[in-house]
Amino acid sequence: MTTGTPLAGAVADDAAEPSLFATMSTMRAMRRLRPDPVPDELLDQLIQAAVWGPSGGNMQRYEYVVVTDRTVMAELAPLWKRCVDAYLATTGKYAPEGMDEAAYGRMVAAIEYQRDHFADTPALIIPCYQFPPPRIEEEGLRIYAEALGAEATERMGRIQERFSALAEGSCVYPGVQNLLLAARGLGLAANITIWHLFLEAEWKAALGIPEGMNTFAVIPVGWPQGNFGPVRRRPVSEVVHRDRW
Questions:
Q1: Stated pTM of the model
Q2: What 3-state class would DSSP assign to 74?
Q3: In angstroms, how far is the first alpha carbon of the chain from the final one?
Q4: Closest C-alpha to 168, from 201, 221, 217
Q5: C-alpha angle with apex 143: 137 to 146, nearest 5 degrees?
Q6: Model pLDDT for residues 142-183, shown as the tens digit of each residue
Q7: Strand (E) positions, 34-159?
Q8: Are 178 and 24 spatial neighbours (Cβ–Cβ below 8 Å)?
Q9: Nearest to 163 by CA among 141, 120, 134
Q10: Which stretches of the chain score pLDDT less than 50?
Q11: Domain Nitroreductase spans what residues (predicted)?
Q12: Taking a C-beta distance cutoff of 8 angstroms, is the pair 50, 175 a contact?
């Protein structure tokens, strides 16, 4: 992956913009992959990039399952098809708000292509994480309740499941983003999916992932059939709220 001018020294013109920005601005989800294998050393580079990512609480309890064996991939293909079909019949049935129907049709066609050629996927990366049991003492709980107040403490009790899920995600997804950036920098196509969660128990059984370990994505990786291109996103002026909403 190439390096560029440090951000602190960047100016507005394109020539001085860090190369990382060019990488991010052309990092489209690439679902049409060539069947050519990806060398293990490149896959190791992707995992290294993921390990370099920040981890909430710096606990670094992530694990990565990397699948390249054709037999294993063929076993996973029916699970992938069931998950994609379930998605396309429900959440994925309609274009997201603001997305052109023709553009969404092209995206669905790419999803269906990936589904139908899944057994030929060169590599899959499955990031996993197991959050450690909390170590909380009675005195700590007392201070916690005093600091938050009665209303917020009661509210936290209601959203504890969401809080825990976000805490785990904060330990995993920064590394996943590093992995995706590294793939783009190496000329590899990759995209993050979570459809496997429809059948997570079956995926874990097929891959021998321990019952207590949570899976956070299935990331197909390979050499792209097409070309990388600029992403289409809402402009900053439409999404930023300065100082308050």
A1: 0.86
A2: helix
A3: 37
A4: 217
A5: 140
A6: 999 999 999 999 999 999 989 888 988 999 999 999 999 999
A7: 62-67, 123-129
A8: no
A9: 134
A10: 1-13
A11: 28-223
A12: yes
